[in-house]
Amino acid sequence: MFQSISYYSTNHKTETAGFREALLKGLAPDNGLYMPDHLPHIDTSFIRNLSRKDYHETAFETARLFLREEIKDTDLYGLVQDAYDFEVPIENIYERKYIMRLDQGPTASFKDFAARLMGRLMQHFLAQENRNMLILTATSGDTGSAIANAFYGLDNIQVVVLYPEKEVTSRQRKQMTTLRKNIRIIALNGKFDDCQALVKKAFSDHDLDDLNLSSANSINIGRLIPQSFYYIYAYSRTANADEQENIIFSVPSGNFGNVMGGLLAWKMGLPVRRFVVATNENDEVPVYWQTGSYKSIVPSRNCISSAMNVGHPSNMARLVTLYGGMMDETGKIMKDPDVEQMRRDIFAISISDKKTIETIAGVYNKHKVILEPHGAAGWAGLLEDFRVHPRDADPGQLCVSLETAHPAKFPDEIRRVIGIDPELPPSMKGLDQMEETYDKLDNNYEIFKEYLKDNY
Ligand SMILES: *Cc1c(COP(=O)(O)O)cnc(C)c1O
Fold first, then answer.
1. Does the C-beta of 107 come closer than 6 Å to ligand 1?
2. Which residues contact 120 (CB under 8 A, 6 or more apart)?
């Protein structure tokens, strides 16, 4: 029998919420992150059923396990079909090793998967209640454009995006600053973590209650759940489900929202042997694995995989709660998780920029496949895992490494390393010539607050 899912806060200082409430609030009232109190179960026959289905059908079948009490199947199907109107290619590299390209959406990064469905779910609920909302979001490059594009033109939602002025590529910036309408973009004189800190502060500032703020960062549960779907899709397309074959996923990680989606799929019953988590030189998590003590990196380090320049992953509290521990919003561990078990399930590795560049070159020379810096870090992480766990490299072992952005978003790096100018995906053609609109702000909360009060 279906038991309805409630969402608790990782800080455990507030009541549980239903999905609609958790989605529209974003952050829990006690500043914790929402997590499902239990997960729906998927079994072999569920997975076997998906093996010939399109991506949006896999997404629908999985989404309804979470949402069947919140939203009618016909409505949900419509939202999911509309959100996922692009391809999800899974490319064989060699033996049973694959790359899944999550870069075919409108902003050419995997963040489209979560943002597009979350935007449609929010709009659905807000329209029902005849309410409006102001979304604040901090971005290190790809979230902002995915959120801005996903919410662009929606009636009940306004969006403000903050990005660190010097840390996004010009194409990433243009995917945000050329939209206008209900979208405002702020270039902050600071780092990604500063952007995130301003957003977090605004959420807990009662002077701003009238603005009806919500978040669209990877902390929103409405982004996390859709990020479990493509793991299930990848498995259904590549694995022998009847034999319960297990799979290894490699995930280039910054805020750990992507890999949290994978962990949810695994806890739902997907047969995963191991997750490889590849960070860039922001190695606070790999160091935590090694030493058992967690320390954020302030300020975060600038690497070429810029969307992973995160010194304290905002989903860390979720990872810790999944392993029986508790971490507050400042990154302080209030109760230790089972670190031993975490180490067994998840291989965490830091990939240097040098290694990332070597991997872009190596994969191109060996397999004629173009990876961008984030996907290259993921692939490099998988190869490191093969050194440490040689059986993972067996020819028969199924592995899927996630390519999280399109190479054309990082043309300078690609050109420099392999001498090729990656072709733009259709969604990005013409972008270079479009006119931009954005505001510049200093990294100061009072200034940001005034800006919000003046404009909304
Ligand atoms: C955001 C992003 C990541 C990191 O994902 P998290 O969910 O924050 O771990 C990796 N690659 C690209 C291209 C991204 O945009």
1. no
2. 79, 82, 83, 150
Answer yes or no: is 234 within a domain. yes
Taking residue 255's Cβ as centre, other Cβ atoms within 10 Å add up to 23
Ligand 1 pocket, 373 CB below 6 A?
A: no
Percent of the chain residues past pLDDT 70, beyond the cut: 99
Residue-range definition of the domain harbouring residue 253 = 88-109+224-418
CA of 207 to the centre of ligand 1 (A): 32
Report the CATH number at residue 273.
3.40.50.1100
Report the domain count for the chain. 1
70-129: pLDDT as tens digits: 999 999 999 999 999 999 999 999 999 999 999 999 999 999 999 999 999 999 999 999
Instruction: Answer yes or no: is the C-beta of 111 below 6 A from any ligand 1 atom.
Output: yes
Q: Where are the beta strands (DSSP E) in 256-331?
A: 272-279, 326-327
The letter for the amino acid at 348 is A
* pLDDT tens figures, 151-187: 998 889 999 999 999 988 888 899 999 999 999 999 9
Residue 289 lies in a domain: yes
Q: Per-residue pLDDT tens for 342-387? A: 999 999 999 999 999 999 999 999 999 999 999 999 999 999 999 9
Q: How far apart are CA 163 and CA 176, in angstroms?
A: 10
Residue 149 belongs to some domain of the structure? no
- Residue 258 CA: which ligand 1 atom is closest? 7
Q: Distance from the CA of 251 to the center of ligand 1, in angstroms?
A: 9
Q: Assign 334 to helix, strand or coil.
A: strand
pTM of the model: 0.92
Domain presence at residue 287: yes
